[in-house]
């Protein structure tokens, strides 16, 4: 892989071409995260998307 997995657009030309966030899929990061998940290593993904929405099954008294 010849891509930088942590690339963010920094120059004015890159920001004009890719936008501020650079939303195009970064294949190097996708492969790196897949290998980390397979090996059980930490990734930047959130397991619980919204913790406030988790259901509490216990009865409140």
Automatic annotation (TrEMBL):
Protein's name according to its UniProt entry: VbhA domain-containing protein
């Amino acid at each position: 892989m010849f891509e930088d997995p942590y690339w963010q657009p920094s120059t004015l030309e890159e920001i004009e071409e890719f936008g501020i966030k650079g939303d195009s899929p970064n294949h190097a990061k996708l492969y790196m995260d897949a290998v980390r998940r397979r090996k059980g290593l930490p990734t930047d993904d959130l397991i619980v998307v919204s913790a406030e929405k988790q259901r509490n099954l216990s009865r409140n008294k």
